[in-house]
Specification:
Blueprint (H helix, E strand, L loop, with lengths): L2 H7 L1 H32 L7 H12 L9 H24 L12 H30 L7 H6 L4 H17 L3 H26 L3 H4 L4 H31 L11 H12 L8 H26 L15
Keywords: Membrane, Mitochondrion, Repeat, Transmembrane, Transmembrane helix, Transport
Membrane topology: Multi-pass membrane protein
Subcellular location: Mitochondrion membrane
């Protein structure tokens, strides 16, 4: 009976609940653009615009198709964000112990701590994104075996992957996810902390930044994190979209890079970047605002240290 009040009485519980609100806000607000981005990356011919893909998806399958596969990230977002918040808070201080406990982490600690956080959280994010991508691309990727299964949701996809590929199949793309997320999170947190301090001096210590500061700093942080890692995200999408149930087109990260560039040119590595950047600004603005607002409303404005994730991204 006393579990819930005690859970909310500590900082871990507060960040867990607030992180859930922020993560859900980010997933819902940015998912349609994420579906468009995934289809742009997978497209093998021509350079289809985001608008044309959006229009074709809605015309062919309806608005619901833009949210296909959203259940997987929604189901994991609270746990993922809680892990990110706690890991970042711990590592950002552990990486620079010279900072006084009452002061915000140094920028060095922020960068290194976030780098480690990105690598660790990939263990959760990689399977989630694998399921999401398989659902988003269902029906447009030439894979007769998977099309015959007619996946109805995340659970159906997980069962199908495990049955045909085993546990190793669930973690297909883990290496490239780590290579993408470690530097991505480092640039994300560093940009957020730096920009919000410039826009609202002293807010890193007081935690009293304005809504405008949260929106702008979070949006720019999302843009920075995607820009630095985007080519690896394209590779990750292509590797995770394939399955041993049909002939593999790529044998690994380097092979995927080489074949993609040779067949479609270097521009393929940045296909969908505009969509990703637009989505990142919207998503991270929503995530930061929902996170901070939930803390201030639900927990009566208790003083806290702000840490937050994108590749809900």
């Amino acid at each position: 009976m006393d579990f819930w009040p005690e859970f909310l009485a500590n900082s871990w519980g507060k960040e867990f609940v607030a992180g859930g609100f922020g993560g859900v806000a980010g997933v819902v607000s940015g998912y349609p653009l994420d579906t468009v981005r995934i289809r742009q990356q997978q497209s093998g011919g021509g350079s289809r615009s985001a608008f044309s893909i959006f229009r074709n998806v809605v015309a062919k399958d309806g608005v619901y198709a833009l949210y296909k596969g959203m259940g997987a990230p929604l189901a994991s977002v609270t746990i993922q964000n809680a892990l990110v918040f706690q890991t970042y808070a711990l590592l950002s201080r552990a990486c620079d112990s010279s900072v006084h406990p009452t002061d915000p982490p140094s920028y060095k600690g922020v960068f290194l701590g976030a780098f480690g956080t990105g690598a660790i959280q990939s263990l959760i994010l990689s399977p989630v994104e694998l399921v999401k991508i398989r659902l988003q691309l269902q029906g447009i990727v030439p894979n007769k075996a998977e099309q015959a299964q007619n996946f109805n949701g995340p659970t159906s996809v997980v069962k199908g992957i495990y049955r045909t590929e085993g546990l190793r199949g669930i973690y297909r793309g883990l290496t490239v996810t780590v290579l993408r997320d470690a530097p991505s999170y480092a640039f994300y947190f560093f940009t957020y902390e730096y920009v919000r301090e410039q826009l609202h001096p002293g807010c890193r210590k007081s935690g009293q930044e304005t809504c405008k500061t949260m929106l702008m700093a979070g949006g720019l942080a999302g843009v920075a994190s995607w820009t630095c890692c985007y080519p690896l995200d394209v590779v990750k999408t292509r590797l995770q979209s394939q399955s041993p149930s049909s002939p593999l087109k790529y044998n690994g990260i380097v092979d995927c890079l080489q074949k993609s560039v040779r067949q479609e040119g270097y521009r393929v590595l940045f296909r969908g970047l505009g969509t990703a950047v637009s989505r990142a600004f919207v998503v991270n603005g929503a995530v930061f605002t929902a996170y901070e607002t939930s803390l201030r409303l639900i927990f009566n404005g208790n003083k806290h240290e702000t840490v937050l994730s994108d590749h809900t991204i």
